[in-house]
Design brief:
- The protein is mainly beta.
- The protein is 10% helix and 37% strand.
- It contains 5 helices and 23 strands.
- The protein has helices spanning 32-39, 67-78, 188-197, 199-207, 299-302, and strands spanning 9-10, 87-95, 100-103, 121-126, 140-146, 150-157, 160-168, 211-224, 227-242, 245-254, 260-270, 277-278, 283-292, 309-318, 325-330, 338-348, 354-357, 361-363, 372-373, 395-399, 411-416, 420-421, 427-428.
- An 8-stranded antiparallel β-sheet has the order 7-6-5-2-8-9-10-11, sandwiched between helices.
- The protein is globular, with a radius of gyration of 21 Å.
Length: 430
Amino acid sequence: MAAAPPGAVASASPPGASPPTGPRPHRIWLAVVATAVVVSLVLGLVIVEESPRPSSGGGSGARLASEQAAQGTANSVLRSLPGGPWSLRDAQGYDSPTGDNGSAQALVPINSTCFFHNATVSTFSLAPFTGDYAQGTAEAWLFLYASADEGAVVLVQNGTGYLMGELPEPACSVLSRFSEIPAGLVDSTAAAAAVDAAPAGASFTANVTPASAIYTLATGSVLLGSSPANVTLWSVRYSGCLAAHVTALDAYVYATNGTVLSEVVDRGGACTGGGTTPIGSAFAGGPAFLSTCPTNDTYALDGCTAGDYAYTVTVDSSSVNFTSLLFEVKTADGAIVQLAVDGGFSIVAVNGLVAAQSDPSTDLAMSSVFATFGASGTCGASPCGPSTALTALDTIVIDMGTADPAGLGDQFVVLGTGLYSGTASPIALP
């Protein structure tokens, strides 16, 4: 069994059941459920203060690797595992200018059959990356594999592979839902070079530094014109600050030949606040859906009071924890929405239980981070808490009170706090 990497935390046995991304990413995946999990493989990067970080950054000695080089190391870890044959389902590489920590457990739907076992490590640390983020190499790579009976998450860092856990499949239906990634594809370095040679990519890399980088390899369905096609793509996401605003580049590259399919640059909120990492580089929300809170529901238990109007906002991607962000609802004129009765914000886990909640208020703006968290069984064996990761399996519920808000032009705004700054791209509330 490999020793834990610098900054890694040895896993308990068994652990309890439990990216980036900047302004709203350009969505081309049709397989929505699979996409949510793919993007969530930023793995709920959470800050573990007691876990020391590696001493080297991207420009000062960290051993960087391309996807294909790292995959060879990951495959060697799989050779020691029973079961198989194993097939690669997803790969993601990370560089962060500020450093971060990650945990694989944030991926798992919370139920009695889903938990990681046989893990070598449960978390990993990224040192601040000071090198060229647009080279297609990464300080850490995470690989998802699936066989007929098991799923596995493998971390490769500094030339060594570590098993972050196995999952019972298809009972968990997490890793096995991804399509198999074929062989014979271009490496991450070729994908990055193609993006850097394209107009938007060339402009971004010339003007935005430092920036975070996430390289993702996955197979899924995309719309080519008006027809869906199943293809394997490299998703390349860079995010940093340009002219004091969070700016992100989302590019997609055909993994079979290195041709750029699309590239979009998004400009978000101001890069301001107490933290150094733009919140828009670590959180992106999906569309919002309006409904009426069901009879007998309560704010404390369900996230909204029976009869109130409520928006449910999906999480496209997230690498933050519950105390890294604040929520607001603003009018079309930019004012904080005022309610006639108390409303508020709740993070609801995949099992339907409230994982974190703001104090009820007539002002739809959080003045402080979440102080109320779900009990044991909501986020796994342990209670939810400040360091619990917000993932793409969660939803955000906004209790809007008793007046119908449809068509008013309100917007949901996510602000960074703590280690994060600025605002993510606002989400329209229809």
